[in-house]
Records
---
Amino acid sequence: MPQEMKAYGFQEDRLELLKGISGAFRPGVLTALMGVTVAGKTTLMDVLSGRKMSSYISGTITISGYPKKQETFAHIAGYSLRIFAVFCLASLPSRF
């Protein structure tokens, strides 16, 4: 728990960012994940992609009903951070 939050009276040791999340993606279909600011979109994608490894993660992640194996999942799925998507849209002169 961040010290700033403890200063406001939060007693928990862990900050729960995602709770009760479920969903389904169709194979071979580009999917957009949208939501308001601070809704947990990046946190969810970081957990699914394996980028969020230093945090405490509980629960189960299944792919087609089978437990997710990161080494296999990394070959069949991926996501691009927003900054990279915006950078690719920039014109050549504005990059340098």
---
Amino acid sequence: MALRDLARMARSAPRLEQRLRDLEVEVQECRQVNLRLAELMDVVAELLLPVAQQDPARVEELLARYHESVGGPPRPPVEGT
């Protein structure tokens, strides 16, 4: 390996290190999005059965639990439940 190649690699090392840090942050963001998507899919799956069984109290309970888990404002109760 020539001295010139070593010098070029040494100059690019800080950029590569920064790029690696940026990619690690992006991977963590993707993991969080995937986790939220999996949680949402679980809620949807849990909702399908109570909705099919005409169980509005269970539907409200599941929706309230989901809203609490995402840190959103509490849902107002639906009239008649």
